[in-house]
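Try this one yourself first.
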C-alpha cells in the first residue's frame, strides 16, 4: 500500500513524501497512525540541521530513514491502531489494539511486534503522544535519585521539565519549585499542582536542582540555587552550542556535582532488573492522569506539517507538546 511520511529535506524545510509499504510478514504488524507528537528540543536540532556530526550515530531514531543533516525522516512519538498482522498468533493478537511506537511522523507503517507497546486501560491515544517525554522524565528521576523531604528546583517549564517536577512533587515531604523566565507558565504550573517561581524568586540551598531549559543562563541559575554538596542534573542537550559556566566562585567550596542525564541509557544500577520495554510501560502507566492534558498546547493535521513544523519549533513560540492528527481511512 502507499502511505505518506514527513521528511526534513534541508535546514528549516520539510515536505510530505510518498512511500510504499509491504504487507507485514510473520512477527510484524501494520499500524495506522492516529497521533504523533513533536519533541521540540530534539526535533528542533534535527529540523534546523544542528545535530553535531560526532552525534549522527547516537542521535538516530529507531526507525529513522535518511541521514543527518538531511534528507531525513525523524521522530519517535507515534500512537496508532494495529490494522494488519503477519500470520503468527502473537502478532494477530494485537489486531485492533491501540499502541505506542517510536516511529517518525508517518500515516501508516510496518514494524516488528517488539516495537509496539499496547496502551494501558484508561490512557487516551491523544495523551499517549507524551510517552517519550515521560520516559525521559522517569530516567531523570532515576539519575537524580530525589529523596523524601528534599528541596527540589526544576528549571525549565517545557514538557520534560514539567513532567519531572510533577513526578518529584508526588514524593512525600518534597518542596518542589518549577522555575522559568516565562511568567505565563505559572498558569500551567497551577494546572499541574506545582509551585511556580521566576529565577529571581527561586529558593536557594536546594538539595537537588534539575535543569531542563535548554538555555545556558538556566544552567547558571541551577548552579546558583544548589546547596552545599548538592547535585545539579543537566537534562538539556545543546547540540553544537558551547556553554560557559561559572565553575570558579563557590562551585568548588560547595562541592557541587554536575551530572548529565540522557534517556538513551538506563542507569547502570537498574540494568539488572529493567529494560527499555519495562521503562516505556511504566511511562505509559504514569500518563493516565488527565491533568497531563495541560501539556498539549496545540494540534495540527499531518498534511499541514510542512508549514506547521517551523512555527512549532520556533524558539520564541510558546509551544509545549504539539500534537499531529492523522486522517481517518475515509479521509
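Now uncover the answer:
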Amino acid at each position: 500500500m502507499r502511505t505518506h511520511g514527513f521528511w526534513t529535506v534541508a535546514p528549516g524545510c520539510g515536505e510530505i513524501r510518498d512511500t510504499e509499504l509491504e504487507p507485514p510478514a510473520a512477527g510484524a504488524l501494520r499500524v495506522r497512525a492516529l497521533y504523533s507528537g513533536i519533541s521540540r528540543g530534539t526535533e528542533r536540532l534535527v529540523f534546523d540541521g544542528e545535530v553535531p556530526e560526532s552525534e549522527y550515530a547516537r542521535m538516530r531514531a529507531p526507525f529513522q530513514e535518511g541521514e543527518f543533516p538531511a534528507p531525513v525522516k525523524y521522530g519517535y512519538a507515534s500512537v496508532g491502531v494495529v490494522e494488519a498482522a503477519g500470520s503468527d498468533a502473537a502478532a494477530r493478537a494485537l489486531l485492533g489494539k491501540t499502541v505506542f511506537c517510536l516511529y517518525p511522523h508517518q500515516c501508516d507503517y510496518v514494524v516488528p511486534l517488539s516495537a509496539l507497546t499496547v496502551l494501558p486501560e484508561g490512557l487516551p491515544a491523544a495523551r499517549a503522544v507524551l510517552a517519550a517525554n515521560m520516559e525521559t522524565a522517569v530516567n531523570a528521576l532515576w539519575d537524580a535519585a530525589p529523596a523524601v523531604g528534599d528541596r527540589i528546583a526544576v528549571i525549565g517549564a517545557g514538557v520534560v521539565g514539567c513532567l519531572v517536577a510533577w513526578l518529584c512533587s508526588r514524593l512525600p515531604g518534597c518542596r518542589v519549585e518549577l522555575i522559568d523566565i516565562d511568567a505565563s507558565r505559572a498558569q500551567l504550573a497551577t494546572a499541574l499542582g506545582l509551585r511556580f517561581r521566576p529565577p529571581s524568586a527561586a529558593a536557594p540551598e536546594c538539595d537537588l536542582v534539575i535543569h531542563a531549559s535548554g538555555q545556558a543562563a538556566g544552567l547558571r541559575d541551577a548552579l546558583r540555587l544548589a546547596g552545599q554538596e548538592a547535585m545539579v542534573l543537566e537534562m538539556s542537550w545543546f547540540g553544537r552550542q558551547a556553554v560557559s559556566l561559572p565553575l570558579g566562585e563557590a562551585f568548588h567550596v560547595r562541592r557541587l556535582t554536575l551530572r548529565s542525564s540522557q534517556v538513551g541509557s538506563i542507569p547502570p544500577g537498574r540494568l539488572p532488573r529493567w529494560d527499555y520495554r519495562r521503562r516505556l510501560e511504566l511511562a505509559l502507566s504514569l500518563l493516565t492522569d488527565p491533568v497531563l492534558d495541560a501539556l498539549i498546547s496545540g494540534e495540527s493535521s499531518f498534511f499541514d506539517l510542512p508549514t506547521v513544523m517551523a512555527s512549532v519549533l520556533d524558539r520564541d513560540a510558546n509551544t509545549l507538546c504539539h500534537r499531529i492528527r492523522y486522517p481517518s481511512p475515509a479521509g
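Discussion: The first strand starts at residue 2 and ends at 10. The mean pLDDT is 95.
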